[in-house]
Amino acid sequence: MQECILSAIRRQSVFPGASVSFSPAVAAARTLIDNRDAEPLTYRIIGREVGRDPEHLERRFSAECGVTLHAYLRDVRLRRAYALARSGQKIESLPGTVGFRSKGGFFRAFRSMFGCTPGAIASTSGS
Prior knowledge:
The protein is 67% helix and 0% strand. The protein is mainly alpha-helical. The two termini are 15 Å apart.
């Protein structure tokens, strides 16, 4: 369990607080994802919202951030799910709350990212 928590802490520090300068389009895409992660966002929607060609934005985002738009969105959603699990939110409501359409996909992605289930996170936080 301790390794699960350490892994989660390491993963949570990948994006937040990084002192990196991004182009205006990439910064706008990151802000949009950070603020609207529960919405059904695609790279086409994000491109349209920030006023850039989606394919060009995808390439710029990957070059500047080191991950695709989809991977960044998934990680933002999973970090929020982690925080919600720690705060005591019902585990079965997490996938929909953070924007996952598939419960199975959510639980696989969560375990892959943090090395444990949301239930394990909730139980270590006293929920």
